[in-house]
């Protein structure tokens, strides 16, 4: 998708964990000014100018970032067509940015223009904004176009609400100084824009970036048409305030959609039918009541518009009956699920011959041909063969896998070979039975494959997506995302799709893309959390904590960073940097006469590498640090898998004088058993071991402290976040403490300033 490249970096930075404070401030500012305009202290046109300028400034700032971000995801385009496609994203961002700025300028100049030139200025701004919005929307990616029948259904669905909104605009527009043809033309424009915005914001793609851009464009044009239709001079009155909500919401929606357009498209959902059925009639009733209160009766045009809403309703029912008689009962909105016509598959379960792209094509066709509302699930399976066989062997394995899948699936289920990448199953069963089918597929497909004299083994992963009203491409994408999640979690498992899963996977892909080269780019940083003696609250050491300051992703913490680094096999590179930077900082503090220790966390993969012990000794020698000033921490839950090697490495460190610590101690039976075997000096326990089963009268921390004293270990109570926890740890016999209640993690400069409060810092 050509637009994705320029929009890719921006959404992660401006949406991931970004608070919506600026938008909230603009909306609050708009509400206050609108209230003042309705009460009388502020002129209505001044309110339109101020709110429009504020919203357009914020939207323009959001969109301007998209035009400045370099495209680093692909190489330089080759050829004229490639260069034209590469230029489309920036053109879309620039046009949308210019459109919101033009809308803001149009609203801002209205109070400054004289009464005679005010309609002309509004019309000029409307035309310019419409042209810029049209160009920007055409440059955005769109879904495939629906069929002719789907377009007809969409047109009939919007006809009756559109007529109601046109009637509402006709009744509410001012009479004075406006001719009937002009008033009718403005009413038609307002009604069409309103119904288009309503259809976009309630349709199945309402959460996509393109839909938000289009809905925001319609709301913006609706506000400008209303402003242009107001009478010149003071006759406009408070009617101008009606343009404030659609103008502010419109430009903010355009900016939000532009930032979202390159993210993974959300699944198509069911059309929200109640706003289309309820809001237009309610608006008509409100307009009629307003006109009757003003002492006016509906004129001939209003009556004709009311009668014009009847034929679209009749036509829609007739078309729906015709569709039901030819295609069977659907019970759904064809405009929401319409796809291009495809050949009807055979009623028998389909087994596609491997060797080409026809497997996925047939799968999508089968999904498109299922009656609505569809029930069941789509299962996508990846075999993950342990070896990479040749093409002929892969074909034999695929045929055998399809045969096994057919044996465990129900008679009405459909099985598809995905041309070497796995297979897919369309099941008509409910969620529980579909998950059971996934478990049976794991068992059947995990058995060894004996083909062409070779024995191949597989560790399959299965992803499930519940069939709904989404288009076939979205359903396949959802099931495949769940399959990728199952593979990330270790394979041999079944995973369901959900929206949170998709967000996490997109975040994971961003991390995998940005993490390589983070050390070379200077994006890594360390913060330090002091460790204090609980008796005198004096600092005795610090713990180095890794932070990744990425300009796109923001600050990434180790819990999210390290699993990605392990999968990319660059955890050793990060560990080398952390150890070197921490020892350098410790050397700087030691020059000042302080005697502190520095604790550095290492992963099991780092600790078990053959060169870890000599490399650590070389770093200490390079910076002139005493071995007893360095503490190597390893997490207790990860130790059991490599216990013999971990014991050997820790013993090697202690033989050099380097102190070792066991972090995250859980005080379970297995933990106490392996505690005797580990050559460690410090034991770090969290607040979860302070009580047994949540009973405050049965403390466990004092038991852990007693065991540690018998083994010659010193206990550090970590994650102390309240004065009560600090006092409990001290009473239990913990010598040291660490946590937010004592000192928060901070940069080296702030930690050094904290040390200045203790002139005689010593070990």
Give your account of this protein's structure:
- The chain has 27 helices and 18 strands.
- With 763 residues, the chain is an alpha/beta fold.
- The chain folds into 4 domains: 1-143 and 208-265; 145-204 and 278-322, no CATH class; 358-508, Reverse transcriptase/Diguanylate cyclase domain (Alpha-Beta Plaits, 2-Layer Sandwich), CATH 3.30.70.270; 515-755, EAL domain (TIM Barrel, Alpha-Beta Barrel).
- The longest helix is centred in the first third of the chain and has 30 residues, at 80-109.
- Helices cover 55% and strands 12% of the residues.
- Helix 20 runs parallel beside helix 22 (612-623).
Low-confidence stretches: 1-19, 71-79, 323-358, 691-698
Q: What is the strand arrangement across the widest sheet?
A: 8-9-11-12-13-14-17-18
**Count of DSSP H/I helices:** 27
| Overall mean confidence score, pLDDT | 76
What's the architecture of the largest domain in CATH terms? Alpha-Beta Barrel
Rg calc: 33 Å
Tally of separate domains: 4
**CATH fold call of the largest domain:** TIM Barrel
C-alpha geometry: globular
Largest sheet: 8 strands, mixed, barrel
Question: What structural category characterises the helix and strand content?
Answer: alpha/beta
Q: State the end-to-end CA separation.
A: 60 Å
CATH class of the largest domain: Alpha Beta
* Residues in helix, %: 55-70%
- Total E-strand runs: 18
| Proportion of residues in extended strands | 5-15%
Q: Output the CATH homologous superfamily of the largest domain.
A: EAL domain
Give the tags.
5-stranded mixed β-sheet, 4 domains, 27 helices, disordered N terminus, 763 residues, Alpha-Beta Plaits, single chain, 8-stranded mixed β-barrel, 18 strands
